[in-house]
Write a structure and sequence with these properties.
The structure is a homodimer. The first copy, chain A, is an alpha+beta fold. Chain A is built from 18 helices and 23 strands. The radius of gyration of chain A is 30 Å and the shape is globular. The interface between A and B is large, with 128 and 128 residues. Chains A, B: GO terms for molecular function: aspartate-tRNA ligase activity; ATP binding; catalytic activity, acting on a protein; nucleic acid binding; transferase activity.
């Protein structure tokens, strides 16, 4: 019996119709010989009723069904009695009086309830993912993800972007994160690598004159996993030729507008705020600031450099900085509340946390006595301190101050309820540094990647002050999450060579690793640039979830394991022989099951 | 200067407008101090003109440009003089008189011409793929592929299919082709495998109640490559619950109708012909018959079993068969033409090839004398032999007869010009055998895959005559190519266990390899089935190409090498240490560069 309707689609408009439904038994209640079953399919739930008055043989069959049995049923849609109407159910005004039933399959009792909001160990959910995904909230997230992908594709297609698939079996790159490797059977001793992104392929497509490319691309990083990382993840990968940065960013804003409107009905305001990396770090202590609330950090160096607070003066003397966060309204916190911030700040590198409470117009706290009256007034003016405020000071090198006060700003913003979960506040962070210095490797490394174009006016700094160089790179930030990023790319061979040189690559190594790219740059490469959006994270934010695994049908655990299929797993030795590799040790010697 | 128009979009409707164009120099001609450049972008070509009369400084700059330079130019669209109109160019009625030029990048002379129809060694094209893809025919194919993907997605989305991404890092499977393996860094001695298809994941999504799934999925097979294989390929992967076979196939026909109409403007007729595997093998000697022409094979056993042709009689006695192909109109072939068929047939296993020519109403040829008059009449009637026909006979076991006459049918159909390249003839091949017997492994193997549902009425044959069992499997065939295939799946644990048992898997091994699937079948699995289309091959046929590599942006060679990036390649020994593997030999010992 093929279904005629979806369970969740039935309304009072269907009353009197005979319908066939397919679905799973959600619940089953026997009320004095009349059987009520909530039947579930992906569209929702409807109540079906088996009654001796009209169900005939079907009742006896239905009597044997249990939770998660799969049924095909036929019956008539009927209005419920007033007193049995269920206002919590979309189909709550009707029920279906069944005359025919077929049990398509039986079911054992599942290891957890197939319903939203269960509190079950995640590893059990992952092992039985096929049951976990039956839960409506998981199905809704998967459908939201599918819809989001479709919206990306529709928008990009309408704007002339060509969907091109690039290889998964590709070449190991010396820059970037750790690669997943794939031994070659044909070429003994050689390996493919799974791509960390299609970066070089998409640039080569621009050299090919394709002009506008996109791909919803699987990417791979063999990194130690954090809560918001997966070994394989998905990015919406975009590249274009001949566009300038602002034209591209404006187009991407329209893409986000469409995405948020058509998935969750939110109207985004454009243009998105644009903020330089310098400003973001200065005001928010973060390159992915949550702009849903204020609590901006305030620079204090000029005011406190000559104050009596020894630690301030000495930090400044050593080239560090002192900044203040005015925790509005936290002036009433107890000494213990304030002290509790110390260990939190320490996690971000703080060696201590100086503070001032403002009470009855006066500054209070251990450090106040070291300030002059003028200094206090200057602090008051700079921070806008008022009665009931709490001023928090961090004094250290730039990075630690940003980390500490950036983290405190978020914590206090949350604690004070300043963050509205229904607000989606996008921003572009621009003008990132081109390079940073890796103390361990004793060389410069690319902040974005080695193919990022420097700001035109900074090019001469390659030879004089590389750390001062800014990149034509941009991140798109939403509510404190980086949801995408990109850059204009280098498209002249001599600039790319300068960049490789700055990264400490000899011309020979650059040639060995990226010869094809340097060659390509000599055959008429157009100016180009692009962006990639993290699809997993965007879907997470759209769905209001807090974990990437909730947005992925079959995710891996934090130890990169697929608990459902039990992968990775040992393989037959003959498979390794064919691949010309051996295990370094016997598996049992160093198996690290986690 | 941002472009205002695409090169190929300019028409007489733009005359008088000032436009800015970006593109590549296709050709450059200097006619008495006036410079004509064909400027190319992905939309097409337009002629731009630099003339001292209006170009000012731009002329001197333009004078230095060469093929494949990247330009940005601004000028006025002007109607060409009547005598210079180029009817071969979409923009041939106009030209652009340039007043401003910027050279965005220079170019060396490319290793081959950037134009259609070049005859260049394919390895050179693959090494410089970024130039090869600049050629209009390659760009058109990539754009066609993008469009085809979009049409698949639009259709499936409209029909309620949810796009779900399944893992690339998954588990090695004991059935099927050879897996690509990925060593795990976290779990020493263990490996992921790249998926040969998302088969089990999509079935688990049906267990999850997702009801309709699709994915344009990358798949991997580490097989020795033939011309029409790639180590990674793309399939449009589809699965649905609660539908019966015919409803699914009808829906897929509508999908093909939309695809062919919207890409190449071809109106397909539905319903597609449906033909059983038995009939396809019988009439066409192939399970992927080219139905654009007739030349059906004819069974001869009953007629020739008692004839004087010894080889016929003895083959039939041994359980083999004799079949005939009436090569209409080839009766005039010379003896040499006919003899030349012998070595061709031998490639498909023929030990010899008997034949009869029909001339002036009479049968001629070496075997005719062994036939009685009645037998000749019976042959004439059965084969419809007429004057000018050539009857070709194959006598051997069933497989060889099918291979030989199937191949001859295709060759003769081509030679006789019976095949219309503009016709797209789809068919469904159904009722495949469930199992075949692998002589080497001495066990049954699944013809489709081990999850294919047997025909309901054949279930009892598991215990009596497994080779007689037919599967609820279907291939979709187009012009002699298999462009897709699928099946209804087993959804009851006991049937799946019977199937594993028939394949010689012990319950323990089945449990170890597919325990999660057997478990899943116990928790309310709906009836389900699906199909997968080979996207590469479909695009190849849509684009009228004869090689899968022409449809893939960055394909691999027949020895599974990426010539552009030079992958696979040796990796740093420290990378192998981290993955707990060693090379079986030093790379230089057995490097097999091809």
């Amino acid at each position: 019996m093929l279904r005629t309707h979806d369970c969740g689609s039935l309304t009072t408009g269907h009353i009197g119709e005979t319908v066939t439904l397919n679905g799973w038994v959600q619940t089953r209640r026997d009320l004095g010989g009349v059987l009520f079953i909530d039947l579930r399919d992906r569209s929702g739930i409807v109540q079906i009723v088996f009654n001796p008055a009209y169900s005939g043989d079907a009742l006896a069959i239905a009597d044997k069904v249990r939770s998660e049995y799969v049924l095909s049923v036929t019956g008539k849609v009927v209005k419920r009695d007033e007193e049995t109407i269920n206002p919590n159910l979309a189909t709550g005004e009707i029920e279906v009086h069944i005359t025919e039933i077929e049990v398509l399959n039986t079911a054992k009792t599942p290891p957890f309830f197939v319903e939203d909001g269960i509190e079950v160990d995640e590893s059990l959910r992952l092992k039985y993912r096929y049951l976990d995904l039956r839960r409506p909230e998981m199905q809704k997230t998967l459908m939201l993800r599918s819809k989001a992908s479709k919206i990306f594709r529709d928008f990009l297609d309408e704007n002339g972007f060509v969907d091109v698939e690039t290889p998964i079996l590709t070449k190991s790159s010396p820059e970037g994160a750790r690669d997943y490797l794939v031994p070659s059977r044909v070429h003994s001793g050689e390996f493919f690598a799974l791509p960390q992104s299609p970066q070089l392929y998409k640039q080569l497509l621009m050299v090919s004159g394709l002009e506008r490319y996109y791909q919803i691309a699987r990417c791979f990083r063999d990194e130690d996993l954090r809560a918001d990382r997966q070994p394989e993840f998905t990015q919406v990968d975009i590249e274009t030729s001949f566009l300038d940065r602002d034209t591209l960013l404006n187009m991407m804003e329209q893409l986000m507008v469409k995405l948020f409107k058509e998935t969750i009905g939110v109207e985004l305001e454009t243009p998105f705020q644009r903020i330089t990396y310098q400003e973001a770090m200065g005001k928010y202590g973060s390159d992915k600031p949550d702009l849903r609330f204020g609590l901006e950090l305030v620079e204090m160096n000029d005011i406190v450099a000559s104050s009596g607070v020894k630690v301030f003066a000495s930090v400044i003397e050593k080239g560090g900085e002192v900044k203040c966060l005015n925790a509005k309204g936290c002036g009433t916190w107890s000494r213990k509340d304030i002290d509790d911030l110390g260990p939190y700040a320490a996690r971000y590198g703080a060696k201590g946390l100086a503070w001032i409470q403002v009470k009855d117009g006066e500054f209070k706290g251990p450090i106040v006595k070291f300030f002059t009256e003028q200094e206090i007034e200057a602090v008051r003016e700079r921070t806008g301190a008022e009665d009931g405020d709490l001023l928090l000071f961090s004094a250290d090198n730039k990075k630690v101050v940003a980390d500490v006060l950036g983290a405190l700003r978020l914590k206090i913003g949350r604690d004070l309820g300043l963050i509205d979960d229904n607000v989606f506040k996008f921003a572009w962070v621009t003008d990132f540094p081109l390079l940073s210095y890796d103390e361990e490797a004793k060389r410069y490394v690319a902040e974005h990647h080695p193919f990022t174009r420097p700001n035109d006016e900074d090019l001469e700094l390659f030879d004089t002050d590389p750390l001062k160089m800014r990149a034509q790179a941009y991140d798109i930030v939403l509510n404190g999450y980086e949801v995408g990023g990109g850059s204009m790319r280098i498209y002249k061979r001599e600039v790319q060579e300068k960049m490789f040189d700055a990264l400490g690559m000899t011309p020979e190594l650059a040639r060995e690793k990226f010869g094809y790219l340097l060659d390509a740059f000599e055959y008429g490469t157009p100016p180009h640039g692009g962006i990639a959006f993290g699809l997993d994270r965007l879907v997470m934010l759209l769905a209001g979830r807090s974990n990437l695994r909730e947005t992925i049908a079959f995710p891996k655990t934090a130890s990169a394991t697929d608990l459902l299929m039990d992968a990775p797993s040992p393989v037959d030795p003959s498979q390794l022989d064919q691949l010309h590799i051996k295990l370094a040790k016997k598996p049992e010697d160093n198996k690290v099951k986690a």
